[in-house]
Amino acid sequence: MPDANAFSNYYSPFNALRIAKGALWAFLLYGIFARIAFAGHNVARLFAFGMTGGLTGTILVVILERFTFPGLFNFTDVYRVTGPFSQMHIGGADIETYLTIGAPFLVMLLIDKGSMWLRIALGLILLGVTYSIMVTFSRVGYAGYGVALGLAVARNEKENRQQNTTWLKRGAIALALSLAIFSVAIPIYYSPFAKERMALVGADLDSRQNHWRDALKMRDPGWATALFGMGIGRYPETHFWRSEEKRAAPYWLGSEAGKYFLRLGAGSPLYLEQFVSIQPGKEYSVEIKGRSNKPNAQLTISICENGY
């Protein structure tokens, strides 16, 4: 029976719905593709414009986020953007994945035949994508972005050859794109924070390999689990009960005398946010009612600028 924890807790069986919705969206998108193609429209070009619109929205959020917090050109502070992706709080790679996947569609439109003003606009968006992927400071994102752009250019190079486009024109476009991209990427790549991240590649790779081995050991024995896993959305629960790594602190929403309260368990740090709209020149106070079944328990409250 659904309760207050059903859709707010990663240990809930309903967590499977959060994971499975991605497959549902893919299935629905395939159906739309089929209908548009059946009507005789250029599905690839329409989809490329849709992805470009999504990239543009993501870029604008990233620019606003950077402008609000560290600054657009401050690449020293330890700050990594999250963009419009709410699930980044669990350590996902959603923003760099989306930017990397969307970039080839943008390149396809940029190299394709179009007006000069459209190409200028698309070129500016490509620079925005480059800036956005670089300020994620994701090392895998950097590599994936480079591979994605290379494959996109190679694919369009093949089409241009079939259309007998001169090699001089193809080379000029590729050179212009490369210079523009590197002019944005290089200053960020050689910034202090980026160099610090790159220096930790070996150590972080070891930790991820250990994490992978731990995840494999958590599974039930048998061929069915080897093929299909422990079940959709069950990784948080399985990790909590079976992992040899440090566990994340659990949480539950409880009810007592008609009032809800938050129960916290032991584990690695867990951050719960309360957004407050403040006005300049006013005083604010924080009041919390808490209890613990163990002596000397401590609760830490952090106040930070977070929001737009």
TrEMBL record:
TM regions (residue ranges) = 20-39, 46-69, 89-110, 117-137, 171-190
Stated name of the protein: Uncharacterized protein
Looking up InterPro entries in the UniProt record yields:
WaaL-like (IPR051533)
Note the superkingdom of the native organism. Answer: Bacteria
Q: Indicate yes or no for the key word Transmembrane helix.
A: yes
> Signal peptide location in the record?
none
In its keyword annotation, does this UniProt entry include Transferase? no
Q: Which UniProt keywords apply?
A: Membrane, Transmembrane, Transmembrane helix
